[in-house]
Amino acid sequence: MLTGALLILAPLFLGFALSLESRRIMTAIHYTVEALVYFILALLGLGLGQMEGLASQLGGMAAQVLALVLVLFVANMIGLWMFHRWQPMELERPEGDISPGYRRLFLAGLKPLLAVTAGLLAGYYLLPDMPMAEQVATWALMLLLFLIGLQLRNAGLSLRKLLMNRQGLGIALSLTLSSLLAGVALMPWLGLPWHDTLALASGFGWYSLSGIVIGDALGPAWGGVAFLNDVLREIVALAIIPLLIAGRPAMAIGYGGATAMDFTLPVIRSSGGLACVPVAIASGFLLSFLSPVLMGVFLALG
Q1: What residues form the membrane-spanning segments (predicted)?
Q2: How far apart, in whole angstroms, are the C-alpha atoms of residue 299 and residue 154?
Q3: Closest alpha carbon to 130 in 50, 48, 216
Q4: I want to staple 206 with a disulfide (CB 3.0 to 4.6 A). Which of 5, 140, 141, 258 is the partner?
């Protein structure tokens, strides 16, 4: 498992080491990443659909997802609130109507669920057993991480400046530590070894990564649990960001996890103003690096 974890991490760092200047290539990478995400999620659904005893395990999976979502939510809110009290962030209210279209964003948040559902139904009703699907998903994930590394490296972001953004760094560390504490609290309920539980708690909203990495290490059922936990984080974040960001911006930005630098960023921008953007990008960027590293390390301990 150690070799597998290192193989998962290597493409991310390799991509981050390469510098590209062509805007056309970066545009092609953007669309390739989007296509790969849905391809990987469909393969995750396929693995679930072809899992033995799927129907009998759905109830247990639902209870595990609910426990993960609730305990992580409470722990993250407490951790981020404590950071907010220690390092409060003052905001100016944004002027004008710059609404990103919450209905559109919410529907976009449901697309990953549709991709997994399509794969699940195809695997359960239509397709024969495909033992190579797991290996294909792993290689697709490695390509995805390489391309994401390229995107991060060539997004015009200075790693030094991101690490020096005290609010962004504090939010990322608060979310990470509170998530790991939640993982410790969940160990008796989930019935997994401590390192596997901490790996489950380290997705930080990156559902396309956590679903495949956890599924490859612990089986398709746990991969489905990891995916649902992280995609629900994204959907809940869309709902709570406008409610919290005016008074407690660290809590609003932080709960979005790794998505704060991309998917939930328009909501953060419209609700909190321009001052929130560098903080959200910094925290989301750091969590996007920490998530695969922590999952790889924890799973390698098994």
Answers
A1: 6-22, 29-49, 61-84, 105-127, 139-157, 169-192, 204-228, 235-257, 277-301
A2: 29
A3: 50
A4: 258
